[in-house]
User: Fold these one by one.
Assistant:
Number 1:
Amino acid sequence: MASLQCAGAGALALWQRQHSSGKRCSIGRQYRRRCSIAVSIAQRGWCQRAGNPRSGAWRAMASDSQAEDEEQEDALLSDEEEETEEEDEEDNVDVDVLSNEEIDALMKEYGNVVRSDPEPRKSSAEDANADAEALSMATALATAANEVKAVDIKLFHVKPLIYWARYFLIASAFSMPQVNAIVGRIEDIAQEQYGKIPRPSGKPSGWTLMDFGDVVVHIFLPSQREFYNLEEFYANAPLVELPFVSESSSSSTARSDAEGESEEEMISLS
Amino acid sequence: MRPQTYSNVADNSGARESMRIRVPGASNRQYASIGDMIVAVVREAVPNMPPKGSEVVRAVIARTRKGLNRDNGMAIRFDDNAAVAIDREGNPKGTRVFGPVARESRECHFAKTVSSAPEVLR
């Protein structure tokens, strides 16, 4: 996202290279006006505060600049003021934000898409479809894991928290062969029903991750699940109800102990 | 990131600073960038935690001052060099990552680092 951010201790300077066409940039039209001003400021390596390019803070930063930078910024600001002159008449103050319709009109008249975002934002309808598909895939994968006797299966809807995935499926397995079996089963289901292949992320281990883009599957050994504690990290993500009752690890160990005892009784009787 | 580069360790594994030695799997590869795995030696560590000073660890580069350029023309640069300690299987040694991480780590097969990170830059 072409945003200007100041991120605390790991402060970063995020800037954009200006296209040869001048003020126009193809990355988010709502940042178009900020881009051209931001480039000249960012070139001095300053950490930018997200906000209005016409706010006092930005003007204060501009006033500290060298003469040629000031001229460049003033030229850019005045150009954009000319474009928005008609809209500014009513307000008598600088218009800080153009409406979408005004930006569309300006883009139509002057705009020239040089390069489009390879990950464009989806419309709400497309997003809803993608959400539904991701949910059905996550539920199918959870069912597949349950069939291979994975325990403590939980499905988190993480889209409100992070942008790079919609659902996290977390499950536990008791041994590496079981982890391999779950991985194989999930890969088969994902390929056959949804045509998706997981992104390669190393060999299966104590924490096995399968990245299907919108759905990310985490398979842990019980000790690793406790160690990494992803459920606490994503505790604000709502849990999704699954169509089956997932066994918890404590009940499965209790059941296996009971089965072991009954087997011993059988052996002693015989 | 070149050999001998010092970088912060951006997780709670116990190491604080590390120095890059090599990039594994290449004979004389000089530069490592965000998303690359490196071999590093711990230079400074939190007392009474597992990684000791002068212990050799593997790490994934999470942030660099040099930064990276993306296909859409965006360039990202960070204020520090930072790496996340991992083990031989690629699992992070710590449980949480500190600071933002670029999404390239996910594309370079280190989605576990991204899962533990508080912020992933689009």
Number 2:
Amino acid sequence: MRERKKSSAVEVSSVKKKKEKKTKDNNEPREQKEKEESQSIMKQQKNTTSRSKKEKQRKATEDYQSLRESELSGDEVHGTDHDVDNADDHHEEDQTDGSEGHRGVEESDSSEDEVAPRNTIGDVPLEWYKDEKHIGYDISGKKITKKERQDKLASFLANVDDSKSWRKIYDEYNDEEVELTKEEIRLVQRLLKGKAPHTDFDQYADYVDWFKYDDALHPLSNAPEPKRRFIPSKWESKKVVQYVRAIRKGLIKFDEPKEEEPKFYLLWGDDSSAAEKANHLAYIPAPKPKLPGHEESYNPSLEYIPTQEELNSYQLMYEEDRPKFIPRRFTSLRSVPAYENAVKDSFERCMDLYLCPRVRKKRVNIDPETLKPKLPSRKDLKPYPVACYLEYKGHKGAVVSISTEASGQWFASGSTDGTVRIWEVESGRCLRVLEIGEAIQYVAWNPLPELPVLAVSAGQDVLILNTGLGNEEEQRRVKDLLHVETPTAPDDNMASIVSWLQHDKLDGIRLRHFKVAFSPLSIFSCIFVLVLDLGLVEDHLLKNLLLALMFTLDGVFGRMASQGRLPLHVFHPTRSIFFVSTKKNIRVYDLLKQRLIKKLETGLKEVSSIAIHPAGDNLIVGSREGKLCWFDMDLSSKPYRVLKCHPKDITNVAFHRSYPLFASCSDDCTAYVFHGMVYSDLNQNPLIVPLEILRGHTSSNGRGVMDCKFHPRQPWLFTAGADSVIRLYCH
Amino acid sequence: MDMNIETPEDQNEENSRRVQVRFKTKLKPPQKVPSNSIAIPSNLTRFGLSSVVNNLLQAVNPEWKSEPFDFLVNGELVRMSLEQFLLAKGISAEKVLEIEYIKAVAPQKEEEPSLHDDWVSAVDGSNPGFILTGCYDNLGRVWKAGGVCTHILEGHCGAVSSVNIIKSDGLKYVTVATASKDQTLRLWKFDAEELVNHPKKIRSFKILRGHKASVHSIAAETSGNMVCSGSWDCTISLWRTNDSDAAGNQVSIKKRKGNNQVEEPQLEGEAISTLVGHTQCVSSVVWPQQETIYSASWDHSVRTWDVEMGKDLSDIFCGKALNCIDIGGEGAALIAAGGSDPILRIWDPRKPGTSAPVFQFSSHNSWISACKWHNKSWFHLISASYDGKVMLWDLRTAWPLSVIDSHKDKVLCADWWRGDSVISGGVDSKLCVSSGVSIQ
């Protein structure tokens, strides 16, 4: 194969030479002509093979078949065969004396490019053109029309006449008759004989050693390097020297004594370590039998031997309590009898092993202290109310409600004995007693310090009373405010709900409320009290707001009133938002848009009190079962934290206005003070730390502390007790 | 007497150690013991030591009547047995111990209380001739010794919260100022020496208006020309006290309104300046020197004000709402203040870099409503508390020297009178006078 390639490589140049020759001598004899012929045929052949090789081959074999038949059939054919042989020989001669490059021409792949195929229908079967007048297209896209076919007879006759007809092959593809040259015939014949198609190819040529040349300096040899050429490594020897020195100095030690494995093992030792080594899934060692002691000895000391009395006392014991083994003495080991319980003991031991529960008890070893949340120390959260230093005594009934004045100088308290008292904080002096006559439910001081007005709800009325504090000018303004021109033109909406009257005895206004279907603490009173909280005391403004409120909340209140419950409520300190509690939930209303914004789900049995943080984003809700919920309005409608602290009902909750404190008071006669820090950083959740339990009130009629309020400026807490005492807890 | 001394010594002979002591004193010769050292049992308490000293005095002077003494070791009063005291203070008992003795300070006598119609809210005893009290029935009263009310100051329409004796013109006329919860201050003038059979009602000659809330406290300048007042409106106002005659010949900023009423002319005055800085009620003011005012407030701070500049010089933060303040003690510089907790605190503003109190007395059980230094002694002060007790303190011991328990309810005010009496008024509407406090 290699030679062949070689030859073809060599031939490329020779082809060119040949071509030059061709141009030079035109007067070459038939030989040359033949050559040209064969050349063109070969090209043709090449073409056809490239088109559809298999088809071509098949056709060729058919042709040759027919050729053979004809060979066998006629002399002429014989003669021609001869002729062919001759021609073959001649050609061989021709080949030998001709130039070496000649033979490669037929093989040259580039020959295909020289003559473009005539028909260019692409790789499609010719049958498609069977019924067409043309057989395809030439390279310029013009149709190649089919030649007029001779009828069979004529062609047969022509074949018979023509001596060369056996050489002719019809090329269906190009629709033409091709006459094979002698050269081609010879080639075909050689192929049929199973020889190499080219005569000049010597299958058994001598081997040419291409790599042999005379001046070879480096003979190619596979001999291993002789030992004499070995050069020892300098660095290795240095390393060896280093090691040797280290060994001499004793830095490297050989023959270190191996750690001796203990020959003996602890027979009675614990198996647990061995169990861990044994990598079983859950290997639990069997319980150990009790080890024999001194008393099991055949000759125990005297103190182990029970006396007769002891033996007798054993008889009095219960069978379970009796000692299983009674030590005895034997003079020698020989006299020890067989152990009568041996079988029984070993059986029991087996039963123990078999029946004992082999379960590893998982014990979670957690220090309960670590489970507690990390809370800051109470010391760091000072100041907060700790101790009671002042008591305000004077009421004769349970004190229900208290309210502090904005500056913190006075506070008012309302009691079930029908009086409202105004107290001085610092001295504990009762400045005024306002006899209302009905049990008070709620008192509220006007948050505006320039108008010392008190709102009181008692019975079904709301009273707005002058406290009589402040200087003359303030008193004058208060009197103006509290003056009602008696026959007020009945406001068409308001008239049905409320009437404004001058209070007959006290200096103030009585708001009489006509819808008496509601609970004693009328809706109106609570709204009104809180309207005062808002500081809206302009008369018409107030009425308008009340109207708006009434219509907004009528549905809620109506439903709650039908349940016989008191509506609890609180205003947002800065925005026009209003919180009303239903039995279990808190509804948040926007007063300007007059619609429900949000509904807070407390998860409590019954809400008893609510209070809002002065910043307005947090709300605490106390419940009847003693739970306290902290809502973060920004977080969700579920409580941020639920504190279960009071064993009894929470009666009231309160936030401090400036300190981070809140408190809850309960019927269990205690008030709890908590640290409730709300951070301005929205990412930080409020910090709630229980601080102090304030005790001191006594229970009365099952009620404890009824109300708690923080001092507006000091970290002090007022608590109103059912025991008719008000206490002030200071830091 | 001999027997008295012998008995404790006999008893303790076997089981107690003895210490070598030498008594010394600054008292005058009749009370001076010989200065040679003697050995006494170490378990003697103040009472034992006192009887030893009395015994020694009696040995020198047979007519000596025994009286109680108090004992100082290294400037501290002995308040337990001598042995315990030495152990507690780490004083060696090997050397001769020098014990200084002073007269025991304790009230000797409870005088008959002067009854008021309502709570006694303020008292001033700075004039030895009389006691001035303020009461919740809107009246001020002047009391002579022996519980005789000589004058009634009538005019306020709110409870009198603070009273102050400003000055006495010569000997006869006395000017006093009262502050009230009706937001005004009133100045009064009366003849203290006047002998009357029944209380004489007098009216104020000047009304000072300007505060926007109840006035809580009043204090007069040392010369008596000005008063300052602390109020619930968080300010301290300064007022001139001079009446119309004095004001006529000097140029003053004050605008006067001659408000001629039917009986007698009443002047009205306005504040000449206002010190702003406190954030809550100014509960107490004192004006011990011409140029500085000290104030205590419910905003938990004690401030020192420069009168000329009208600014606060320093600020001591206490942590509790304060009710009372007084200046006195060593160099008249220590600040004593009490408030909304049972602890009486004493600061030394001269101590640099700290605002921690130098003394804390915590024997009371409730809010402290008043505290007053003795005007002569460096060590003694009284405090009144809502627990109904007035306590007499000595800076040299942490225990009260004596507890005056004459009130039945809250004590609202207390003061010294004549240097040897403690006067106090309270919720039980009584003015109690405990006399015989011997402070040299």
Number 3:
Amino acid sequence: MFQTTSSETSFQEISTAQLLFNVCRNLHQVAERVEALGQFVMKTRRTLKGHGNKVLCMDWCKDKRRIVSSSQDGKVIVWDSFTTNKEHAVTMPCTWVMACAYAPSGCAIACGGLDNKCSVYPLTFDKNENMAAKKKSVAMHTNYLSACSFTNSDMQILTASGDGTCALWDVESGQLLQSFHGHGADVLCLDLAPSETGNTFVSGGCDKKAMVWDMRSGQCVQAFETHESDINSVRYYPSGDAFASGSDDATCRLYDLRADREVAIYSKESIIFGASSVDFSLSGRLLFAGYNDYTINVWDVLKGSRVSILFGHENRVSTLRVSPDGTAFCSGSWDHTLRVWA
Amino acid sequence: MAGVRAGAQMPHLSKMERVVVSMQDPDQGVKMRSQRLLITVIPHMVAGSDLVEWLIQKYCISEEEALHLGTLLVQHGYLYPLRDPRCLVLRPDDTPYRFQTPYFWTSTLWPATELDYAIYLAKKNIRKQGALVGHEKEHYGQLHRKINHAWDLVVTQAREQLRAAKQRRKGDRLVMACQEQTYWLVNRPPPGVPSVLEQGPERSSCTAGQAQMTKNIDFYKREMELCRKALGRARVKSSVCLEAYLKFSSQRELHDPIMSGCLPGNPWVTDDDTYWTMNAPSVAVPTKLRVERWGFSFQELLEDPVGRAHFMAFLGTEFSAENLSFWEACEELRHGGQAQVRAMVDAVYQQFLAPGAARWVNIDSRTMERTLEGLHQPHRYVLDDAQLHIYMLMKKDSYPRFLKSAAYKDLLAEAVIPPEAKKRVFPFMRKLPHSSPSPALLPAATAGGPECGEGGA
């Protein structure tokens, strides 16, 4: 009963696997009856030049037109990207500022990188005030800061770090409110869930895992491990029931939280460079992904096909976010520029 | 060790190698030919245009994408041009290219040391009789100063390698020189050319040592816990989940500016920000699409300040406005500053939960008991149960009534449908995009943090 020959075991394994494969349908099969998307035209509508080195991260302001961007040389710039005017600039005391975020009120920004910290700068238009003077040091990690995000208000910040942990901080006091341990390696990205009773977020790391956390308890609620390489970016589907991830294995994947598994892969044989940054259009039908081969691929989330490829950047695309009202998306690149596409 | 670590961080290199290997397949690969270069004949060459064509056929991609992919292969040193070899670009014409020998493949990731580079430059220097140019001349000078103590070794090695090379046929010598030159163009790119090897700050995961360290007892205990949780978790059928995406995306399609456009026009395309003015957070008359969205989900309604205000007014007519106010107060507590927690919990208790409170909310006795118990040790999540109860009450009860109410129907009827902006007749008369005041300048009217006051207004 216990001893089976190796060939018998493998036959059983294959049968079970096949059964499971037929039963566990994926999104693209179900979406076969959905109408295909037509011709897709998106162009660069704004090019933001001003960074002297690689742009590493960007975030939109809730006013749908301002953005904050950070770069390798330590500069953090706030732009009105509609007019392309620079409104604020700060020089951080460290290089490789890999994370930056705009506060929900629009009155402050947060950033950090190789300094292992996350600092908050209130935005001031007072010419007599030096923005760096009012800087608040909020988060402290033991390795580089890879991602940061304000929660629903200006008063809490969520951070991810190369030290393998995420953490929630009180901005005013710098107090650590909760820490999240579980990744086996550097955490590279995070995204807050748009859930109505919301208290969860997802993080992705170099251990190829995407983990969903309960912000209250610090516990990992769900984990997904199907990528073959570092996960560079995670972003929730607009309904909050799923999230997408972009990885160095050149694929993007969609994970469903209620079904507790991967439900779609977005890949193409001709795409061999890692995806650095992903985001959904407002309806969740399109997935924009920036890649290390300088391009942006636009995916039909439901059908799994690639709708369009956008050229323009002259070095790897490092960051990509859709604007809050979904009218455009902005990409930042190692070619020192940011582009707004619509 | 360096090779192992970097290799793990660069999976695209092995993928490029697979492409290049299939390009050289005798049956399915790119057409090979021999090319005459001056007086020598070089075999196994491919034309740039053939490379592009092969990529188009193999991956079903456009010419632009094929050219882009091919260029990346050349930039990473997997192919090199024999004409103008200093320039690693892919020309879609009859420019001849050759495949780099695996010995020099980028994925070997040898630490291209200063010594190796010095020997290479020294060889070039000797061959060209001291006529190195540009950045190579500069580097040569720098290295001469830096590793002066080893310079005899450098020159000896250079001479030795040149002597060994002379024993080969002229064609082979030419090819080997090109191969080596390509290797150095990738590892020591000329100024202005970004290095394709740069990967950004090191990710410690790739070090074998680190991986060993973390897989200890705690790591496996956590893994076991995760598996246990996964086993016990209630899952929703895949078919249900997948259908939900179809439904969600089709419901929102018309509300997605990138999918369906937006009226009067997308500001980024027309340079006209009327769309934003008409959809401002607290506009007097919301657009039709916006009012429709309030019917998609309770969350959509609450997230929109205008929607929430109308819902509050509606609750007022039903004498249950304190529910929404309570929910808002709980949100403020959850997302507020740590120092304010105690005071906020007190305020909420006094206003909404205490017996005889001015705006007492109706929570079931069990939740109320648990909440009151928790108030002895106030923390930001102490009201979560009560908040959830009230939220579900509004969602299941008041919200559906709101959607059926005359108030909502009137809002839909009065809502604006912006006309499509007329296309400007004279395209060169571009309006300059309006600037708008930064949120950091405005007084703290909208829900924002205390930092807003410092906006220098």
Number 4:
Amino acid sequence: MEHIRTTKVEQVKLLDRFSTSNKSLTGTLYLTATHLLFIDSHQKETWILHHHIALVEKLALTTSGCPLVIQCKNFRIVHFIVPRERDCHDIYNSLLQLSKQAKYEDLYAFSYNPKQNDMERLQGWQLIDLAEEYKRMGVPNSNWQLSDGNREYKICETYPRELYVPRIASKPIIVGSSKFRSKGRFPVLSYYHQNKELNAMANRAAGKGYENEDNYSNIRFQFVGIENIHVMRSSLQKLLEVNGTKGLSVSDFYSGLESSGWLRHIKAVMDAAIFLAKAIMVENASVLVHCSDGWDRTSQVCSLGSLLLDSYYRTIKGFMVLIEKDWISFGHKFSERCGHLDGDPKEVSPVFTQFLECVWHLTEQFPQDFEFNEAFLLQIHEHIHSCQFGNFLGNCQKEREELKLKEKTYSLWPFLLDDQKKYLNPLYSSKSPKFAVLEPNTVSFNFKFWRNMYHQFDRTLHPRQSVFNIIMNMNEQNKQLEKDIKDLESKIKQRKNKQTDGILTKELLHSVHPESPTLKTSLCFKEQTLLPVNHALRTIEGSNPADNRYSEYAEEFSKSEPGVVSLECGVARMTC
Amino acid sequence: MEFAELIKTPRVDNVVLHRPFYPAVEGTLCLTGHHLILSSRQDNTEELWLLHSNIDAIDKRFVGPLGTIIIKCKDFRIIQLDIPGMEECLNIASSIEALSTLDSITLMYPFFYRPMFEVVEDGWHSFLPEQEFELYSSATSEWRLSYVNKEFAVCPSYPPIVIVPKSIDDEALRKVAAFRHGGRFPVLSYYHKKNGMVIMRSGQPLTGTNGRRCKEDEKLINATLRAGKRGYIIDTRSLNVAQQARAKGGGFEQEAHYPQWRRLHKSIERYHILQESLIKLVEACNDQTHNMDRWLGRLEASNWLTHIKEILTTACLAAQCIDREGASILIHGTEGTDSTLQVTSLAQIILEPRSRTIRGFEALIEREWLQAGHPFQQRCAQSAYYNSKQKWESPVFLLFLDCVWQILRQFPCSFEFNENFLIMLFEHAYASQFGTFLGNNESERCKLKLQQKTMSLWSWVNRPGELSKFTNPLFEANNLVIWPSVAPQSLQLWEGIFLRWNRSSKYLDEAYEEMVNIIEYNKELQAKVNVLRRQLAELETEDGMQESP
């Protein structure tokens, strides 16, 4: 708490991000050890986790006060006006400190207490078991074995302890290979594809340079141009700049989308994953994937390729397994890429975000093949940055063990599983065969801007009624109705029996089945928030009855036509 | 019959048909006066049944004796026919060219079409102006029906019956007509029952360079204002364009002569600019090879979504004047037959729940497009593949439908109809067996005797069997004004139209079906619960009676 000087500031204005007329809400700003909280005059709360803050800026003093702009890693952007410069300065300094911690131990996960005992905590961590996962894939088998070479992290520090390698790969071969590969990341099994006719696998390694073709017989090389982390970082930055523009024109939006290159990068990752899946499915070929270090682009391609090949990874649990396997265990540097600690900004890059976006594009093309919905992807994205759970802290397994994360923090997955209902895709068809391979169409027009990710907090840009939420609610309601029918039928049967028996009990007379509350829910305007979140963490926009989105619109609209709201300008605008 | 002369080769065997997402089919090609038919001989079912009037352009190619005709349709589909024999191919091509560009409207298919269904309700009488007016007359007595245009003499592009302020007599209307472009004097387009405000539409005033004025015109539009209230004139041209129009005898309402009105200029593009935009967009969508940058670049360069945004923004502005500012509005551009109608009809979609129902939307199209004199015959004569030298083709109606689709996307439960309904209307506006979209205005339709000689689209659509295809399962009526977002991030390419023939929609269709199943199942369960509950209640009453003798 030593960083907090001012805990409460009154008469703070929260400006609407897209309003050209600078519409605002007035309220009180609170600073806590973990969150910045704004409560407006309608008692609507906006919570911002310190760890989500990517950038705090204090702009030049204006007549109404001192502007404070906060950009978050979950793409929320808030613009406050603090009446006194002094207060603004205090908050600004506090946020600078609080949003950039130097030590892992100061991150939220180490103080977050969901009131579970050690037993529950441990069970939570055991929920996703990678040994089980390799068994599911069918390894070890006659060709593949578990290697104990890296049991003590001696061969490769950024790999997990358990690694699967070909049976013929003896320890000297492994050690030799590791010396030839960047960071000791020798080729290991990432995914083993089981099928009646074929057994093929995708494995992974690190590169730095590439293999001399003469030395690798029976191997075909394919270079797919996925750009490096620096290109991806600046691409996202450009995208966000364009999107944040007030009064954005269609033309500027599309030329900005184009020049940011963002969708080009997404398509490149997708194309590479499809190449991998096709090689395995169509050519029965095994694939070795690597980039330079093998923890960014390699993770993207291996995980996405596995997702195309194996429907298990398209279930809620399977997707968690996939992330644990290809991202967490194989050493994607989450802490560096997400900037968890005050570190090198050049190491930050939206590599995992791109993976989630690729998955989203797949869910758009194959609306019935995924057990989970968009909210699930958004929630995972929320938590890679929140530092609330231990899963994504650290940069590799070895580091995580040293941090004793399993003893000191909680795993995200059991919490998501408990909330499963919110993340179920109502259209999911589990009928699809286990190895139904997805063959996405990657013609450019299939890639759309992911509004619900990059504008998840800008509710005015969203559809006002969500088909998805309605169907989701209806699915839930159907389950309740099925139950009601059973209850009613058994009651009627009971009645009939009793009538024939001529026995009546007073008690039953009063047990008229209460009308199911689900029946009264209307389809329209009962929209749930798109992003189901912990209520304590963040308010649910749009769920408050006072939060009338039609009144928001007038303002939204006025940005394109300020002449309407202040009628005096009408003529002036016309003539200019 | 003239058609026989145009058909040199009525039948060719061993023709191969290539269509997107279907395997190639070999069969016999037949040309009739109005259709191109290909049937595979194996099972004797028609594989293709294409109206000549749906053909926008054709290309032919030859490789040795094998000819290929590529047919580009007005609904943007492209199909290919491989025809053995050069002469046959040339004959077929020239026949198609001639038959798809018939000069005389009375030779068009609607005049020959005999419906295979029983007409339950004659669509020609489904939306009579008198009936539509009754919806208003219960709420207001300030308006009346005028028959001043009975013989189409006052305004050739207006219907015989229009709604005007009660205090303005027909004589004054004649004078106003002389002051407005094309005789299009201000008439009522929409009455907002909530606050009595109205949308009127007209052609531009013919002020010319010397600032001509017309007292009757001023009186007419002032008659629509409440005491002490101001109104808005929304001019769908930029101020610059409106000023230039004066040189050609047109112009806009001068502040000095219309002191109670504030004029707002919103620029909506017209004619060939829209047509070029459509051509570019369809070209971009049809090219599967370009990389991401090129695709986004071409999508942007087509400007289609910019036009969508302009039109929607102006419609929102109009609706905002009515509902939020409590002010009446007059809308016009130059002729008042294109952008004006886009704005008046979309404003109604936003403001009025009825126009979001199937019948209400049909009534809206009848009122605000057909009777209001949108020149369908000219605008929809050609589509995206025909590079016309004429300037009257323009996808004005398609842009309107696209705007409706955008609102439907944002309010998926507020419309009784679904996307298929909009697509169907697009198809029929360009090529149809029905007479509804023939002609450029009521006067022409009258002369063509369409009511007697052709079938109305509504006669077919409004049968229960057809309606079910166009009904939105998510619809739940609400009485709200629905304000769409016009931010570029909220607008989307209408894939159902523009990517329809460029990618398979199998998975999306299946998902839609599943959604319908869930909704149907829900209804079923609710009905069952209600029955059981009633049954239980009855049993309980019986028990109660038995117990208390």
